[in-house]
Predict the structure of Lon N-terminal domain-containing protein.
Amino acid sequence: MHTTIPLFPLNTVLFPGGVLPLRIFEPRYLDMVSQCLRTDCGIGVVLIRQGQEVGQAAETCNVGTLCKIRYWNRRPDGMLGVTLEGQQRFRILSHNISKDQSVQAEVELLPDVTSFPLPEPQHYLARILKNILGQLEPPYSTMKQQLDDADWVVSRLIELLPLDLSLKQRLLMFDSAQKKLAEIDEILKSRDK
């Protein structure tokens, strides 16, 4: 399925099921959030390949995550606080940059990754994730945890662990939860040696 969405280029990778708290101050992004709240449309979070989060429109990777605004509030510092929740991966087909440097993209929604119960040898990953989430504030600490779901566990670990952004992006592009799980399992076991 193809659709047109506004893009939010960031120096982060978000997976379906993940949450992302943001502080928004740039007029183009304030306008984008306002429009999305009025129309209940999604926002595409996509990793910056070249450029910055502010100023000129950045060059982005081609695969990102369509998000819904889960929560918003006006912060004491005058910024807008927004929590995005990842819904579905997408691939950018084309994009347009407006005068204010905001980006609209025609995207193809990608199929959901099929998950499966977390295998017993990888239960240690769920324990690591539970420990990490227990040390964080909302929205992470208030997430509905699915610690028996292999894709949910591995996706949250990829988001939260200090991994290289290019690796996170490559893992976002995987259509297989099994492949993501195998790669994270190998990375964490190799660091223990």
In short: The chain has two domains: 2-109, 120-192. The first strand starts at residue 2 and ends at 10. The beta strands are 2-10, 19-24, 43-50, 59-60, 63-74, 80-97, 103-109.
